[in-house]
Amino acid sequence: MPLGILELKSLQTLYGVAIGGDNGFSISELKDLKALQGKITIKGLEKVQGSMHAQEANLSEKSPSELELEWSYEFDGSRKETLEKEVLNVLKPCSDTLKELKIVSYGGIEFPSWVGDPSFVWLTHVKISGCKKCTSLPLLGKLPSLKELYIGGMDEVKVVGPELLGTGLAFPKLEKLSFYSMKGWEAWSTNNNGVLVDTTFPCLQELCIECCPNLVRVSVEALPSLRVLWMSGCSHEVLGSLVRVASSITKLEISDISGLNDQVWGGVIEYLGAVEEVNIEECNEIRYLWESEAEASKVLVNLRTLFVNNCSNLVRLGEKEEDNCGSNLPSLTTLAVWNCKSLEHCSCPNSLKSLTIGLCKKLLEKELVGGREKPLINSNLLMLEYVRISIWTNLKSITELSSFNNLRSLDIINCPNMESFPDHELPELNVLTQLRIVNCKSIDDSFPRGLWPPKLCWLEIGGLKKPISKWGPQTFPTSLVKLILRGGQSDDVSNFSQMSHLLPSSLTSLEIHEFEKVESASMGLQHLTSLQHLHIYDCPKIIDLPEMLLPSLLSLIIRGCPNLKERIIKRGSYWPLVSCIPDTNIS
């Protein structure tokens, strides 16, 4: 602790009180800071030699709104369980003002009774973390205003039940509940002496259970307000038990659920009638998400967004996909599938507006060879608004872009063998506003030919076969306001004037990336009178900036341009101009 801090008699907020340290600060010295309120954080409580020293801090006579009490993360032979309970007991704060309470790495076996006392009428947030010796949780269910509760790292807790809830109405206002890293946790029940408590968690909206591998028995009554369920590193029994008592879930996120096979998952989706978004990651026993679209449509009537990531044995979305399927999930508008190495086919519902498929190796090999019979993206997807194609090594061409009348955003990134792109169709895409074509090094030299969508606002392009310096005039629409140009090893541009014909006067934002040979930016930009944002990345030889534009900029970002640093920092030649720009980031 800083010397002399005890002389600050009017101090109200104090973060990080460090017990001990080089100057041997004692917790008892806090008694002289009588005005403390706001947030108080006290660390190193394992160094307190006796409870009388903690009592002298007089926390009960102070009025903190936030209190964090932290012991050492090391649980070795030096920890004294009884002493730590006595210390925590006398650190009870004033109950009239406390809104947030955190207890971290406490080493007692149980909590003193004030933790969870209903007299803390304003307490809304509680976090109890890393208390590895505790065998039970404190009685928190009677806190009348508690809205968020986080419990984690309680290795010795095996059962969560009545000791947390109490009798009668429990957690009357709790909205978010999170359990994490509870390695010894085996059972969760609202059963109180044989009687199921049906007035528990009436307002709970979000439930998170993470890294609780031994939890298998869950006996919880209805959760009528639950909207978000997030589970990771748990068993399928827990997932099944919870969806059965939470019929109003609108968002389900699951990751690494043991035992979650096709049959178990089929039983889960029967309870997902209200769900709008599903995110599934690392569930490697699932091969299909549903039997058929027709069957799924009877249950998943509200499903709008589906993300599937890193499910190594997923073969296809539906076990019985038909060639003409695609119309049975009319509410599904966003589909993303990533890192599913066994995926063989992906039937896309006609209602899709956003489609992302990446790093699905088997699908790429099967779907994108020449002369394929079943195209991955078919022209029936008339509602498709967003398409992202990324890291698709076998993709050689795209055709019939003009069929997608609602396409607003198209990304084609890191497709090294793509040889042709139908830019002659771009003018027909009347609603396309965002386009990214990056690192497609095999595209025919004829691209780009200067043909662009009439309403294009945002363009990122570069890393193509034809160097940017060889591009001819481009007829960009006046709607284009943001342009991102990416260079490459083949680009021999040495100054921005060589690219001025690519920079329409309508631009308000310009980004330049990885032009290793560019030395000058002083010329070639003077016609950009509307420019507000200039960002230059990884141009190691660049030595100057367009001085005439700097006064009108709202943001300037320079990164990886070491020769500019001395001219931009204080006392540099650009400093008088740069210092007036509201947002600058030079690194």
UniProtKB/TrEMBL annotation:
Gene3D superfamilies: Ribonuclease Inhibitor (3.80.10.10)
InterPro entries on file: LRR_dom_sf, LRR_R13L1-DRL21
Coiled-coil parts of chain: none
Boundaries of every R13L1/DRL21-like LRR repeat region domain copy: 27-154
Pfam families: LRR_R13L1-DRL21
Domain of life per record: Eukaryota
Record-given protein name: R13L1/DRL21-like LRR repeat region domain-containing protein
Species in which this protein is naturally found: Lactuca virosa
Lineage: Eukaryota, Viridiplantae, Streptophyta, Embryophyta, Tracheophyta
